[in-house]
């Protein structure tokens, strides 16, 4: 056969030159060295950030965790590619091609990563929308502070020159209260006090309300059982609260505990406690929410079949809502001096899902009560699809879904289910993250979930850790120390959290260093505690500053025999405290 017709595979390609081989080796060594330095500083930054408050360093946390997720993947993929290339014969055709063109995809990948980071983190011009967004991430430590801040925000919005017709529309995902139907009303108003009634009020998380409703979640589990609990303490959390009642449905074993007094009505649903409740949980297919309806895009509002049947079965929803309307209506026992009472729905796990369904139905059935509705759930699963959640948040914007660290229940059911409520993430390291973004959630969920984090006792410990960190050097929020001191002067925080023994009873070793120190002095409170932020101008009485310390000392010194928190509920082994009983 003539040489001109030789098979193409017999053709020889010039091997890389010696200089090219040396350059390749040096580049590989440099890349390995850079990778080592990159991973070292990534580990060091991750370690340092564990001592910082997530809320104040949100962008750096996000930047760091995006590097941890994507940067390490790109770096590892590139190193594996180089290693594979080196295993192939250096004089072969494929090695030659890889060495000549293989760096291009790597450079493109790194360039795209830098561009994405630059776009996400670039500065933006601040406007009213950014102000509303910032407000939605703040926390009020007491109910008085919440009312004062919301009133002040209404005055600021009413006097803002940025208010245009478009600003009255709710921002995507932003909780707002009292949205006016006629946006042009503001233009004809002159007095700021008069204009306050026609501007949106941004919903605000209240730490005091959250702790109080946590105790009512305990009551929903324990009332009517042999497990001891003080119903009187729960009633004492709200002024004048004396009435109580249990509404049950035997066929589905659904229970709601009601408590009321002038100006306040609390409805707490029990979570999964029996075999019937488990059957309710596993019916994860969807059913149309009644009355059947669609949103503007033609999508039907769908909800979890098990939760919805537990709520509606055998007229349970009608009986409960009728009782709530009777108590909260004109002349009812819960009616306040200024009109309808504040109606608070709460629940843990399955109880949280039922609280969402109940609050939504009440807001539709009794529009006069809708502005007074608030919902706080603990570890609640996903209830419905996107259209249902959007309608629910429009009706009940003051809804907060507490999620403890790696609690897996709020992540299920999968598929087209969505979480109802504004998420609030807390953990035993003392972080409090209000309304995290999708990037935050993705970066924070570092595991498939830890079942122990779903226990109510775990929520109590994380709540306690958040309070302790307000007196620390690193994670305290502006005004947090003064807020916790004031909160502790209102009621017995430790008894409300049902934590009888707290010293060294944390969920993981990372939280063991978060020891509650002595509350700040009066001078520290006035200048912002140890953080140098002006957070309070009033003089804090010494008796108020010492309130929290006395509560903790009393609880740590008491014997574990009080039994306010059982090992089963906490999910941990608690050892009795050996501290002596403090003096008077």
Automatic annotation (TrEMBL):
GO biological-process terms attached to the record: lipid metabolic process
Membrane recorded as keyword: yes
Record keywords, A-Z: Membrane, Transmembrane, Transmembrane helix
Entries under Gene3D superfamilies matching the protein: alpha/beta hydrolase
Transmembrane regions listed in the UniProt entry: 22-43, 71-88, 94-121
Domain Fungal lipase-type span(s) in chain numbering: 266-414
Ranges of compositional bias, category Basic and acidic residues: 547-556
InterPro entries: AB_hydrolase_fold, Fungal_lipase-type, Sec_MonoDiacylglyc_Lipase
Region ranges (Disordered): 511-532, 547-584
Record protein name field: Fungal lipase-type domain-containing protein
Organism: Auxenochlorella protothecoides (Green microalga)
């Amino acid at each position: 056969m003539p040489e001109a017709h030789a098979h193409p595979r017999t053709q020889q390609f010039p091997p890389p030159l010696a200089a090219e081989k040396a350059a390749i080796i040096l580049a590989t060594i440099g890349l390995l060295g850079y990778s080592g330095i990159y991973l070292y500083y990534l580990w060091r930054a991750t370690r340092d950030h564990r001592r910082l408050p997530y809320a104040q360093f949100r962008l750096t946390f996000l930047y760091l965790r995006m590097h941890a997720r994507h940067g390490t993947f790109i770096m590892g993929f590139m190193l594996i590619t180089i290693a594979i290339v080196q295993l192939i014969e250096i004089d072969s055709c494929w090695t030659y091609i890889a060495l000549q063109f293989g760096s291009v995809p790597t450079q493109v990948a790194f360039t795209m990563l830098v561009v994405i980071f630059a776009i996400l983190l670039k500065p933006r011009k601040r406007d009213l929308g950014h102000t509303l967004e910032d407000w939605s991430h703040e926390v009020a430590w007491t109910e008085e502070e919440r009312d004062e801040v919301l009133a002040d925000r209404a005055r600021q919005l009413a006097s803002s020159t940025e208010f245009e017709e478009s600003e009255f529309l709710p921002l995507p995902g932003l909780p707002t209260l009292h949205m006016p139907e006629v946006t042009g009303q503001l233009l004809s108003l002159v007095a700021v006090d008069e204009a306050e009634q026609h501007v949106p009020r941004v919903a605000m998380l209240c730490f005091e309300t959250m702790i109080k409703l946590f105790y009512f979640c305990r009551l929903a589990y324990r009332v009517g059982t042999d497990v001891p609990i003080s119903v009187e303490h729960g009633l004492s959390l709200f002024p004048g609260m004396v009435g109580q009642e249990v509404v049950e449905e035997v066929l589905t074993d659904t229970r709601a505990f009601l408590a009321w007094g002038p100006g306040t009505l609390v409805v707490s649903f029990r979570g999964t406690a029996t075999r019937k409740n488990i059957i309710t949980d596993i019916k994860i297919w969807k059913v149309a929410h009644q009355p059947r309806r669609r949103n503007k895009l033609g999508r039907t509002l769908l909800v979890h079949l098990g939760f919805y049947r537990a709520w509606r079965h055998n007229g349970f929803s009608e009986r409960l809502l009728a009782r709530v309307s009777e108590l909260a209506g004109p002349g009812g026992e819960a009616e306040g001096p200024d009109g309808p009472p504040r109606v608070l729905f709460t629940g843990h796990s399955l109880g949280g899902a039922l609280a969402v369904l109940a609050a939504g139905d009440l807001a539709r059935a009794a529009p006069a009560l809708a502005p007074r509705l608030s919902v706080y759930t603990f570890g609640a699963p996903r209830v419905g699809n996107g259209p249902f959640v959007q309608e629910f948040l429009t009706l009940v914007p003051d809804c907060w879904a507490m999620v403890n660290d790696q609690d897996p229940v709020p992540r299920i059911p999968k598929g087209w289910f969505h979480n109802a409520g504004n998420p609030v993430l807390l953990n035993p390291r003392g972080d409090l993250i209000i309304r995290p973004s999708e990037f935050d959630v993705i970066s924070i969920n570092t595991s498939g979930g830890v079942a122990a984090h779903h226990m109510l006792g775990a929520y109590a410990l994380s709540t306690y850790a958040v309070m302790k960190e307000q007196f620390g050097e690193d994670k305290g929020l502006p005004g947090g120390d003064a807020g916790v001191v004031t909160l502790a002067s209102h009621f017995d925080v430790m008894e409300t959290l049902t934590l009888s023994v707290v010293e060294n009873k944390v969920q993981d070793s990372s939280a063991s260093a978060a020891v509650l120190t002595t509350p700040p002095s009066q001078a520290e409170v006035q200048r912002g505690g140890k953080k140098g932020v002006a957070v309070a101008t009033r003089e804090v009485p010494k008796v108020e500053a010492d309130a929290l310390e006395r509560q903790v000392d009393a609880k740590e010194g008491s014997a574990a025999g009080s039994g306010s928190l059982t090992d089963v509920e906490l999910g941990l082994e608690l050892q009795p405290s050996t501290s002596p009983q403090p003096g008077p």
